[in-house]
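thread: overnight batch results

M.L. [08:02]
morning all. the overnight job finished for the chain we discussed friday. pasting input first so we're all looking at the same thing
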Amino acid sequence: MPHPNDSELFASDLEKLLRVARIKLPEMAEVYLDANHKIARTGDADTTAFTVQSRVLPSWRALRDEFQRVLGQTADNIIDTARVLERVVDHYARTDAEAAAALKKAVGDSESEMRTPGSARLAPSEMPKE
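M.L. [08:03]
and the structure it wrote out:
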């Protein structure tokens, strides 16, 4: 069985980073965004759960709002991390021709999988660039 050379091994590592950036991290961010939206919808029940004069209601709203903010910020941070990982892979592909060729070969058919439209899968063109 042939042994992969260093470029092939490095390309395999870059492909894994690319998969994390394009699939795994966006899926993770979607979990936090979904929770964020569910928490936001609890505001509709405030008047049902609490009387208008409730002393607990302001504390509940503050807690809910902060928790929602944290969930949203976490999703944003995860997407930012995905962007950075994709830039790292792009940087290596642009600066190391051998690594770029090996990465292109390693990604091959899996490129279409990484670009398959889905609620959490973002192709590079879909990811906002700074």
